[in-house]
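A brief tutorial aside. Many learners find it easier to grasp structure tokens once they have seen a single protein encoded end to end. The record that follows does exactly this for G-protein coupled receptors family 1 profile domain-containing protein. Read the sequence first, then the structure, and try to relate runs of similar tokens to stretches of the chain.
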Amino acid sequence: MSRHWAQSFDLFPQTDFMAMMATPNSSSMAVSIAGNCTNLYDHRGWAHILLPVVYTFIFIVGLSGNVLALHVIWPNMKKINSTTVYSANLVASDILFALALPLRVTYYALGFHWPMGEGLCKATALLFYINMYAGVNFMTCLSVDRFIAVVLPLRFSCFRKVHNVRYICIGVWMLVLAQTLPLLSMPMTHEEHDGYITCMEYPNFEQVDGLPFMLIGAVFLGYGIPLVTILACYSALCSKLRELAKTNQLTEKSGLSRKAIGVICCVILVFVVCYSPYHIDLLQYMIRKLQYQPDCGQLHAFQISLHITVSFMNLNSCLDPFIYFFACKGYKKKVLKLLKRQVSMSLSSMVKTSPDEYSRDIDKINMGSRVYQKERSSMLMAD
């Protein structure tokens, strides 16, 4: 269900694998024109306002929503199932990402200037990629888990046992770290002609040998395979739910199958809307780069499109809690109970304080009345 910085991209995952795919002439194809372009950040006039607003929204909604989700999930960790384990890991990934967003907001507010050093730039880049790949992988795991639960409940039930799911999650985190840790060995910042220091921007990596092959492979491995897996699992799941509804009139009348199919469609929609624009944008530019060397205008247009599409991808981190709310009956029940408790406490506090305030107001009125009566009596006696 699950994430990402503007200008971020699938550069380093599967680097070693894709490097082997590079042809001997790939380095000549990767000759950078970025060093000769002075207009790559001409859009900072509007970007330094719009991007901080977008990422501040993602930070507030994403952090509060995922902290609430973790607050609901954590007390019941001993009674969890496979779906909850995957969801908890996805929540943890989203929270890690949200914690790094204030630094990124500062970077955009300063007009693509990073004065905080190479180390913090690498740290934010690492958190971005961890969130992105952990999110994609755990969303894929959730789709496979739901598929097994409904379509193949007996044959592969062992994969849904909690202790096995925990090992799967550990494996996912190890895979994500293997994909992202190479970032620490590569420079993330670059000083531009105007003195601005950029952090984790695409032009900073234009001279990497075999760059188009690496990124096309990363799109295939980090987006193509998960997308096909998610679509296949949820399509089979919807087909099975329709079949069950036809054979069970009670299920059909209750509308449970329609609700489940609706939730599945929402999950697919969120994944496609958040992740597709960025990966399609990256793929088309890399294919063009293999055919000819884009000029400064095309590179600048790609820069702007990356800022926009990566913002869409980052929205995934604040949409996940809403999916939990509608998809998980237990989660929805606990959240509503928590909200009712807060409302009840607020009302109780008002009820406790209101009589005291009312009594004080009555006392003031009575006191004023007595003073008025005394003054009037004294006036009458004087007369």
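Self-check: Residues 140 and 226 are 6 Å apart (CA to CA). If you spotted this yourself, you are ready for the next section.
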